[in-house]
Structures are given as structure tokens and as C-alpha cells.
Write a structure and sequence with these properties.
Layout lengths: L1 E5 L4 H12 L3 E6 L14 E4 L5 H11 L3 E4 L6 H6 L1 H22 L3 E7 L22 H20 L2 E7 L1 E3 L17 H9 L6 E4 L11 E2 L1 E3 H18 L3 E5 L5 E2 H12 L5 E4 L14 H7 L8 H14 L1
Parallel strand pairs: 1-2, 1-4, 2-3, 4-5, 5-6, 6-11, 7-10, 8-13
Antiparallel strand pairs: 9-12
The structure holds uridine-diphosphate-N-acetylglucosamine (UD1).
């Protein structure tokens, strides 16, 4: 299939582009390189330097590549920043999506794979979280993801655009085959922050609270390897095109790790001291988040393969060490 990967030079997008190439698709990466990196462009993928906020550039890219499907991973994702600068998130995430959907209606691509997030659920009312869990986002980032899912629902009904909304839990790790080496710039997520501390780029890890109602007092998250996310994108595209219907599924490993477990694992695997200090809680952090990924298993035949803590940390460290 001819596929436009919007945001394909970014951290998750480059892994997805690699997976689609491996499966024999024709891949064009469309990226404004605001956070994506040229070094993440894989041999075999064409590249268009463009911005989804510039409608004409987007429309032309879709028409020129004859895109039949779009994988859409170009969005802002820093939860804290979204609460301070919601306008950036409104424009990048919501306006960007509307441009894409309108361009779909104009150029005729039929399939869209969308990077949604577990942030749509908000504070969990039960665990593990399945797709029937109420969606009450606690931050503006999660709100944009939920709104976008609703737009997708309407364009499915009105324009026949079939979408897979993939609700990622905590994406982490790097390509086990070492093809993607571009590191995220100014990361705010736990594992890259730990890696930067291990490399000496940061002085210490701030642990955001150790008085939660969890066994060691630190928050528990469901970390999912980016290569597992990538395979789910390819399978989701097969599913929505083969069945001519839209889906919304969770992507998580179904196991939880605490901040301290991740930190201890990283100290062991890297052999570095990784200094840390407990600071106050970060507003809006639920104590525990774990996924039920049963629906992705059932519909897509998908299963996480690389999402054990050892592989998550080891593949991250390989990428950071290589830099
Ligand atoms: C959040 C979203 C998630 C989204 C992701 C994208 C929520 C509830 N979750 O994940 O859906 O996909 O952002 O960025 O909105 N931590 C530290 N020190 C640090 C960094 C993190 O202790 O320097 C802790 C956090 O308090 C948290 C855990 O590590 O308990 C993971 O944090 P992070 O990697 O930022 O992801 P989430 O906030 O869980």
C-alpha cells in the first residue's frame, strides 16, 4: 500500500515507518522536522519536508504519493506543557487533524491510523483499563486526543474514512536492531530522562513522589516497547482495510512497573550510579495505570514481544550509548 507517515522522522514514527517498510509497503515520510530528525529517515522511505498545518503542502503530498493510507503521529505530547500552553496543543493536535481529515475527503485516502493515548482515560476507576473505561482526561493533552477520536468517528460516518485509534500507554525503548538512533530532544518521559542522567547529561533524576499507595510508594505505569507499538500499527492497517471498519484499541504490555523499579533496572543494566532525589508529586499523576490489551489481541492478533523491563531499558541504553 502507498502510505504517508506523518511525523515519520519522530521517535515513534520512525519505528513505525521501519515496520511498514519491512512489510513491503511504499512509505513516504512527511515531517516538518520540528522534533523529528533527518537521521531517523530510513533508506527505502521517501521524504517530504512539510507541515500538516500548511494545508496545501499536505494536500499536494497526498496527491503526489497517491497515498491510500496515512499514519498520523505528528503531535505534541508533553502533558505538563499542555496545561500551560493549551493553544499550542489546540493548533498542532486538533487543527492538524482537521486538515488531515479534510485532505482525506479531498484526495480520497481511506485509511487512517491515529496515535491516541491512555491519557484519554484520566484517573482510573478500575484496573486494568480496557476500552470501556470512562474517558475523562485530566490534562489538556489527553483532551485533544479524545476530541480527535470524536472527529474521526464523524468522518468515518460521513466520509467513509476508516480509522484505527491506538491508545498508547507509556511508549519506551528503541529498535532492537539498532536502526533508529536519533534521540528525542528535551525529553520529559521517565525512561529517556533516566538515560540522560546515566549519560551525565542531567545531574539527577527527580522522582515525582514516593508516598503513593503502591508497594514502594512510587507511581506504576505500563511501559510498552516502541517496536511493539510499530507492529500494532501495521496490523491495525491490515484490519481496518480488510474489514472496512474503524476501531479503538489500547496498546500496553499489561504489566506495571514503578518508577523505582525502572530506576533500579537502569542502574543494573547501565552500570551507572544514576543519582536521584525524591521531589514532590507532579500534579495529575495517577498512582497506577495498567492496560488491558485483550482487544488488540483479539482483533489484530497482536501481542507485545519486547515490552519486558529488561528489553525496554537495554534497547534504550544501546541507543543512548551509541550517541
Ligand atoms: C503521560 C500520559 C500518557 C502519554 C505520555 C506522553 C497521563 C496520565 N499519561 O504519561 O498517556 O502517552 O504522557 O508523554 O496523562 N517521572 C518521574 N520523574 C521524571 C519523569 C517521570 O518520577 O523526571 C514519573 C512520573 O511521575 C510517572 C512516571 O514517571 O509516574 C512516568 O511518567 P512519564 O514518562 O512522564 O509518563 P506519564 O505521565 O505516565
Amino acid at each position: 500500500m502507498n502510505i504517508l507517515v506523518v511525523g515519520g522522522a519522530g521517535y515513534i514514527g520512525s519505528h513505525v515507518a521501519g515496520e511498514l517498510l519491512d512489510r513491503g509497503h511504499n512509505v513516504t515520510v512527511f515531517d516538518n522536522l520540528s522534533s523529528g530528525l533527518r537521521e531517523n529517515l530510513l533508506p527505502g522511505a521517501a521524504f517530504i519536508h512539510g507541515d500538516i498545518l500548511r494545508y496545501e503542502q499536505l494536500r499536494r503530498a497526498l496527491a503526489e504519493t497517491g497515498a491510500e493510507a496515512v499514519v498520523y503521529l505528528a503531535a505534541l505530547k508533553a502533558v505538563g506543557e499542555s496545561m500551560i500552553s493549551p493553544e499550542k496543543y489546540s493548533v498542532n493536535n486538533i487543527t492538524g487533524t482537521i486538515n488531515l481529515l479534510n485532505a482525506a475527503a479531498e484526495t480520497g485516502f481511506k485509511y487512517l491510523i491515529f496515535s491516541s493515548s491512555a491519557a484519554v482515560y484520566g484517573e482510573p476507576v478500575y484496573l486494568p483499563i480496557d476500552e470501556k473505561h470512562p474517558a475523562n482526561p485530566e490534562n489538556y493533552y489527553g483532551f485533544t486526543k479524545l476530541e480527535i477520536e470524536r472527529f474521526l468517528g464523524w468522518y468515518d460516518r460521513l466520509k467513509g474514512i476508516r480509522c484505527a485509534s491506538l491508545r498508547y500507554f507509556n511508549a519506551a525503548g528503541y529498535d532492537p536492531r539498532g536502526r533508529i538512533r536519533g534521540l528525542e530532544q528535551n525529553p520529559a518521559n521517565l525512561i529517556p530522562v533516566i538515560m540522560e542522567t546515566a549519560c551525565g547529561k542531567r545531574g539527577e533524576l527527580c522522582i515525582f513522589g514516593d508516598d503513593y499507595d503502591t508497594p514502594d510508594g512510587t507511581c506504576i505505569r505500563d511501559y510498552i516497547h516502541v517496536s511493539d507499538l510499530a507492529s500494532a500499527h501495521a496490523l491495525a492497517l491490515d484490519f481496518i482495510s480488510g474489514n472496512d471498519r474503524s476501531i479503538t484499541v489500547n496498546l500496553g504490555s499489561e504489566s506495571g512497573s514503578s518508577v523505582l523499579e525502572v530506576l533500579e533496572g537502569a542502574r543494573r543494566i547501565t552500570g551507572k550510579p544514576i543519582p536521584s532525589r525524591v521531589t514532590g508529586r507532579r500534579p495529575g499523576d495517577p498512582a497506577r495505570l495498567t492496560a488491558s490489551a485483550a482487544l488488540a489481541g483479539e482483533l489484530l492478533g497482536w501481542k507485545a514481544e519486547y515490552s519486558d523491563l529488561e528489553t525496554l531499558i537495554r534497547t534504550s541504553w544501546d541507543a543512548y550509548r551509541a550517541n
